[in-house]
């Protein structure tokens, strides 16, 4: 059985150098990098052959970290996250302290508080949000398991975390957009 702490250390050393990792998230396998490093984010856009106008999700370890990267977290967000039955990503207005190229054109950012123990620990130890985008070339189906990840992605990342995805048949998270006026809009169920 691979040692989780060793995997976390290896992943962090790659993230600190501006590298890109392939890692199991609380939903599907994700491609990740330091969310504050614009060059690392560009590597992901290039790897996924994705338009830069399409923003990506960012993972944080807890509410405290969330508050550091959003100007104002609407009260309703805490209620939604507290009662959500499955991993839920929320799109917030006016993100702070992240790379420009991860922020959407309307000055919003999709952030998920990671529920997965491995992800939470990785982010806590890295002390910065980590990008999380599905491990596929843009327009291709999202891989449901490690075997479905294409060679192009496996060879294009700097490090593949050697740990299994906790949940079988994992699905992408729900996505909800919350405006600063507390309006709630469901983007992906």
Automatic annotation (TrEMBL):
Record-annotated YrdC-like domain positions: 5-189
Principal localisation: cytoplasm
Catalytic reaction equation(s): L-threonine + hydrogencarbonate + ATP = L-threonylcarbamoyladenylate + diphosphate + H2O
Localization of this protein: Cytoplasm
Family annotation (InterPro entries): DHBP_synth_RibB-like_a/b_dom, Sua5-like_dom, TC-AMP_synthase_SUA5
GO MF annotation: an example: L-threonylcarbamoyladenylate synthase
Record-listed E.C. numbers: 2.7.7.87
Pfam family for this entry, one: Sua5_yciO_yrdC
Family annotation (SUPFAM superfamilies): YrdC/RibB
Alphabetic keyword roster: ATP-binding, Cytoplasm, Nucleotide-binding, Nucleotidyltransferase, Transferase, tRNA processing
Family recorded in the similarity comment: Belongs to the SUA5 family.
NCBIfam families: L-threonylcarbamoyladenylate synthase (TIGR00057)
Protein name, per record: L-threonylcarbamoyladenylate synthase
């Amino acid at each position: 059985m691979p040692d989780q702490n060793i995997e976390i250390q290896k992943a962090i050393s790659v993230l600190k150098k501006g590298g890109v990792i392939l890692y199991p998230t609380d939903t599907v396998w994700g491609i990740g990098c330091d969310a504050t490093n614009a060059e690392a984010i560009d590597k992901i856009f290039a790897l996924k052959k994705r338009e830069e106008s399409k923003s990506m999700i960012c993972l944080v370890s807890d509410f405290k970290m969330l508050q550091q990267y959003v100007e104002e977290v609407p009260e309703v967000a805490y209620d939604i996250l507290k009662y959500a039955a499955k991993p839920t990503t929320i799109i917030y207005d006016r993100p702070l302290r992240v790379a420009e190229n991860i922020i959407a054109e309307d000055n919003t950012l999709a952030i998920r508080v990671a529920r997965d123990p491995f992800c939470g620990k990785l982010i806590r130890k890295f002390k910065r949000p980590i990008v999380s985008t599905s491990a596929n070339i843009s327009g291709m189906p999202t891989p449901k398991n490690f075997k479905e990840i294409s060679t192009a992605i496996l060879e294009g990342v700097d490090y593949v975390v050697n740990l299994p995805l906790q949940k079988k048949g994992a699905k992408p998270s729900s996505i909800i957009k919350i405006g600063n006026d507390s309006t709630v809009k469901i983007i992906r169920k």
